């Protein structure tokens, strides 16, 4: 799967007069799907690539993620680059899948709505001045 940069793609779609609602209806599920794939890679794939040999450290990370992971997942879409790794960590730490999906849906919907709203404002502003 090839990651597609969100902001430039949305700006192009908005400048081509694609409905912001249609953009959101595609953007949010696609973003959640991308995070879910990251979760699955963490849960089932990464341990085969990177072996973990420190059970004490692994336990501490798991405890920390169980305590603060929901908040981290909620803000992760706003963290450049590193935010894309948080779903992988959630998978590695076996974060509860149903909770993960609900939090990711909320987080991705908030970010998607904010980006579409602000970019639609700026695209309209640019079109007005051109």
Q: Largest sheet at a glance? A: none
Rough outline: elongated
Number of helices: 5
* Terminal Cα span: 36 Å
Helix content: over 70%
Mean pLDDT: 87
Number of strands: 0
Helix and strand run:
HHHHH
Residue fraction in strands? under 5%
State the low-pLDDT regions, or none: none
Taking Cα atoms only, what radius of gyration do you get, to the nearest Å?
17 Å
The computed structural class is mainly alpha
Ordered list of secondary-structure elements with their pairings:
Layout: H1 6-15, H2 20-49, H3 55-75, H4 86-92, H5 97-129
Helix pairs in contact: 1-5, 2-4, 2-5, 3-5
Quick overview:
This protein is mainly α and 130 residues long. The protein has helices at 6-15, 20-49, 55-75, 86-92, 97-129.
Describe this structure in words.
- The protein is mostly helical and 130 residues long.
- The chain has one domain.
- Helices cover 78% and strands 0% of the residues.
- The protein has 5 helices and no strands.
What key attributes describe this structure?
130 residues, mainly alpha, 5 helices, elongated
């Amino acid at each position: 799967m090839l990651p597609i940069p969100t902001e430039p793609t949305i700006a192009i779609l908005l400048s081509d007069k694609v409905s912001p609602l249609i953009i959101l209806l595609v953007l949010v599920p696609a973003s959640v799907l991308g995070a879910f794939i990251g979760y699955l890679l963490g849960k089932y794939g990464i341990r085969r690539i990177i072996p973990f040999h420190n059970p004490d450290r692994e336990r501490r990370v798991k405890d920390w993620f169980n305590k603060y992971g929901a908040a981290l997942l909620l803000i992760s879409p706003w963290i450049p680059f590193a935010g894309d790794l948080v779903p992988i960590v959630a998978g590695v730490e076996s974060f509860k899948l149903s909770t993960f999906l609900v939090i990711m849906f909320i987080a991705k919907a908030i970010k998607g709505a904010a980006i579409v709203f602000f970019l639609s404002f700026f695209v309209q502003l640019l079109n007005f001045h051109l």
